[in-house]
């Protein structure tokens, strides 16, 4: 099953997008991840939930979902319990969006008010507001655990169409999340979650990328990568690990040091994640797994460059043929 199978799979899958927005979200990579993931009869386990986009598209009825960021977990628990629902979210966003639209400093005054309120009360509604109105879709917390992203400078951010989009995303997610105990949410270390897996479960890990930006809730050092490696090496479950393989500047040294003992597939991916030039380049994503890969192309990085080069060569050849014909015609004349 090669390239045609991969294209057909991606065309067939409609990705459910969660209401939480964050840089590095795996929305565009979900079909690739789910194509690799084997279908098991156990649970879907994520020690690093993030926005939840992969979990919500896993198709599993039983899950264990964890994140060190309590605001993510509190939000989804509130959705699970019906405390937060699309109607209430719509009302909240319309109200706060109107205040934002008319606030001083082109909306910045109200954004600061929401940020200060969130850093005091930790409202899940305010969390969604900030994740949607923060600069460049970033989610970052300072050393005190407070929201630390400036305003996107769009006072009309919560126009009616955008509010409808968010509430529709919330509605879709609320229909996927099952009541406890089928869907369990945790706010603890990944080291407490991975040992819960059994041989019938699937573990999907999307930890902070070593060598990339981290914040208060997402600190990541080499000793964390080493611990993750040992835990995944020992698990009886099947696992998939998302990480980065290389970019235009350097290789991910953790691949060679730890993950090369497992099967790896790679794919070009573009992250638009901030002001630094190196963070706006194409990065080669990697999926590491502990099971055989027989149904998916193992590597596609560089394919776009290769195709573009081949196309340019073809166009040049065509131009040369046309030029030669013109010369021949001119000579005969």
What is the annotated CATH architecture of the domain at 3-68 and 188-301?
3-Layer(aba) Sandwich
Number of strands: 7
What is the level 1 CATH name of the domain at 3-68 and 188-301?
Alpha Beta
Tell me the major beta sheet.
Answer: 7 strands, mixed
Strand % is 5-15%
Any low-confidence stretches, pLDDT <50, length ≥5?
1-6, 303-310
Number of helices: 11
Described by the principal axes of the CA atoms, the overall outline is globular
Report, as a whole number of angstroms, the end-to-end distance: 56 Å
Order of helices and strands: HHEEHHHHHEHEHEHEEH
Structure description:
The structure is a single chain. With 333 residues, the chain is an alpha/beta fold. Among the domains are: 3-68 and 188-301, Vaccinia Virus protein VP39 (Rossmann fold), CATH 3.40.50.150; 302-333. 41% of the residues lie in helices and 12% in strands. It has 11 helices and 7 strands. It has a 7-stranded mixed sheet, covered by helices on one side. It is globular, with a radius of gyration of 23 Å. The relative contact order is 0.14.
Question: What does the secondary structure layout of this molecule look like, with pairings?
Answer:
Elements (H helix, E strand, L loop, with lengths): L2 H10 L17 H7 L7 E3 L16 E4 L3 H11 L5 H17 L5 H14 L2 H10 L26 H17 L6 E4 L3 H4 L8 E4 L16 H13 L3 E10 L5 H5 L5 E8 L11 E8 L13 H30 L1
Parallel strand pairs: 1-2, 1-4, 2-3, 4-5
Antiparallel strand pairs: 5-7, 6-7
